[in-house]
What does this fold into?
Amino acid sequence: MKTDKKSNEITAIPELLDSLDIKDTIVSVDALNCQTEIADKIVSKGGDYLFCVKSNQEKLHSRIEERFEKYEQRGQKQIRKL
It folds into this structure.
């Protein structure tokens, strides 16, 4: 998909998603594209997503770590950090 010279990946991804049938599909993107608008677009089109989250996305990263810690505290299998 060709984009305008002033465009960037974050603005181009939603346009690309508009042109694809992603129902019942898992969409993965890198950490740069871990954006609420992109997640919402994927879900609204019937897809699921797998996002890479880095520690520089502090609030989101912390919330994810807390969720996994709660999972472990409930006696579930231990989660291994990669």
